[in-house]
Amino acid sequence: MNLEAKVMQALKQAMKDKDEAAKRGLRAIKNAILLYKTSGEGSGELDEAAEIKLLQKLVKQRQDSLDIYEKQGREDLAQTEREELEVINRFLPKQLSEEELTEKLKAIIQQTGASSMKDMGKVMGLATKELAGQADGKTISQIVRKLLS
Questions:
Q1: What pLDDT, in 10s, does the model give residues 18-68?
Q2: For residue 123, what are the contacts with CB-CB under 8 A and spacing of at least 6?
Q3: Which of 48, 51, 62, 80 is the most exposed place for a label (fewest CB within 10 A)?
Q4: Which CATH number fits domain 3-89: 1.20.140.10, 3.90.870.10, 2.130.10.10, 1.10.1510.10?
């Protein structure tokens, strides 16, 4: 079952349950899928990699908004973002813990033969492909910097 079908099924259930937070989050995903299909990107159909990328983009948007709302003391808006984040994260693959991510990145660094910060591009290219959906790029970058320095 593809992402769109899963979202539609979950949206129907959220409507039956009168779960407003779930409906908001699921409608955001549905809207992003619709925009992707009509934008002309790719073939118009989402493959698994595009689905993950789309969901990560939504998570990043919500996270950025959440940070702003928390800094401004707008707990009402921050709570809305937290609820939507929770719904969107249900559709992403399990995120790696920092320890698991560090171990995988050490293996990638060995595999590429990287030894200094000059090799960060090689490591990041491979790491972002292999760990797509399991960790965000910012976290991967921070850990790679720490390991290479």
A1: 999 999 999 999 998 888 888 776 666 777 778 888 888 898 899 999 999
A2: 105, 108, 109, 112, 114, 144, 148
A3: 48
A4: 1.10.1510.10
Q: What's the CA gap between 30 and 97, in Å, rounded?
A: 28
Neighbours of 106 (CB within 10 A): 13
Tokens of 17: 């349950």
Tokens representing residue 134 in the block: 């399991």
Rounded Cα–Cα distance for residues 36 and 7 (Å)? 15
Give yes or no for a contact between 96 and 133, defined as CB atoms under 8 angstroms apart.
Answer: no
Tokens for 132, please give them: 């797509």
Phi, psi at residue 131, to the nearest 5°?
Answer: -105, 20
CATH of range 98-148; options 2.40.50.100, 3.40.630.30, 1.10.10.410, 3.40.50.1000: 1.10.10.410
> Exposure string (b/e) for 113-127, b if CB count within 10 Å is 16 or more?
ebeeeeebeebbebb
User: Cα–Cα distances in Å, from 143 out to 4, 21, 27, 121, 138?
Assistant: 33, 33, 34, 13, 9
